[in-house]
Amino acid sequence: MPQRARNTPVCRDCDGFATAAITTGTRHTDGTRATLTVTCPTCKGTGHTLPAAGLARAGR
Ligand SMILES: [Zn+2]
Questions:
Q1: What is the mean pLDDT of each run of 10 residues along the chain (60 residues)?
Q2: What's the domain of life for this entry (predicted)?
Q3: pTM of the model
């Protein structure tokens, strides 16, 4: 069942690291590194889980 929610529930899937830049090892022609940015599909890059509808009002 739902745990006691903290103020900012961190996404359990990515542990708050919603986006991760992965260095591919290649470089663009301008010298910058080519990176792949992977966004957590669970929290959609926010790093926090979205409170379930209805659960947000359960506080008071
Ligand atoms: Zn996430």
A1: 66 90 91 91 88 55
A2: Bacteria
A3: 0.52
